[in-house]
C-alpha cells in the first residue's frame, strides 16, 4: 500500500518564534512616539526645523504602527494559544487600550 504525505495546513508554515511573546504593550511605544510628534507640532513656538522634525517622528510612528499591526496579526495566526493567554492575564489587560490610543494618536496628527 502506498503512503501519501498529508498536505500541510496553510498556517503550519514556520511558527515564527520571534512573535510568540509579542504583547499589546508595544502599542504604547507607537502611541508615545506619535504623541511626541503631535505635541511638538502643537507648540506655539516658531523654532526652525521643528515642524520637519515632528513630521519625521510622526512618520516613524506610522511605520511602527504598520509593522506592529502586521506582527500582531502573525502573533494571532501562529501563536493563538499565547494570544488567548494574554487576553486572560490581568497584568496585560490594560495594554489593550494602547491599541486604540495608538491608532488615534497616529491618525489624528495635524
In angstroms, what separates the terminal alpha carbons? 69 Å
Q: In total, how many beta strands?
A: 0
As for the number of domains, it is 1
* Range of strand content: under 5%
**SSE run:** HHHH
Note the main sheet: none
Which shape, going by the Cα principal axes?
elongated
Low-confidence segments: none
Taking Cα atoms only, what radius of gyration do you get, to the nearest Å? 19 Å
Q: What class, by secondary structure content?
A: mainly alpha
List the total number of helices: 4
Mean pLDDT level: 87
Q: Which percent bin holds the helix content?
A: 55-70%
Descriptive overview:
The protein is an all-alpha fold. It has one domain (22-107). It contains 4 helices and no strands. Helix 1 (27-41) packs antiparallel against helix 2, helix 1 runs parallel beside helix 4 and helix 2 (50-78) crosses helix 3. It is elongated. The N and C termini lie far apart (69 Å). The model has no long low-confidence stretch (mean pLDDT 87).
Brief synopsis:
This protein has helices spanning 27-41, 50-78, 80-88, 97-107. The chain is mainly α and 110 residues long. The chain is elongated.
Amino acid at each position: 500500500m502506498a503512503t501519501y504525505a498529508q498536505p500541510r495546513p496553510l498556517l503550519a508554515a514556520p511558527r515564527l518564534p520571534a512573535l510568540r511573546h509579542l504583547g499589546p504593550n508595544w502599542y504604547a511605544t507607537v502611541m508615545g512616539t506619535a504623541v511626541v510628534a503631535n505635541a511638538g507640532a502643537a507648540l506655539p513656538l516658531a523654532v526652525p526645523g521643528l515642524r520637519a522634525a515632528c513630521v519625521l517622528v510622526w512618520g516613524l510612528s506610522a511605520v511602527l504602527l504598520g509593522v506592529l499591526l502586521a506582527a500582531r496579526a502573525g502573533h494571532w495566526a501562529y501563536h493563538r494559544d499565547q494570544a488567548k493567554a494574554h487576553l486572560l492575564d490581568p497584568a496585560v489587560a490594560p495594554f489593550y487600550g494602547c491599541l486604540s490610543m495608538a491608532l488615534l494618536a497616529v491618525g489624528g496628527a495635524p
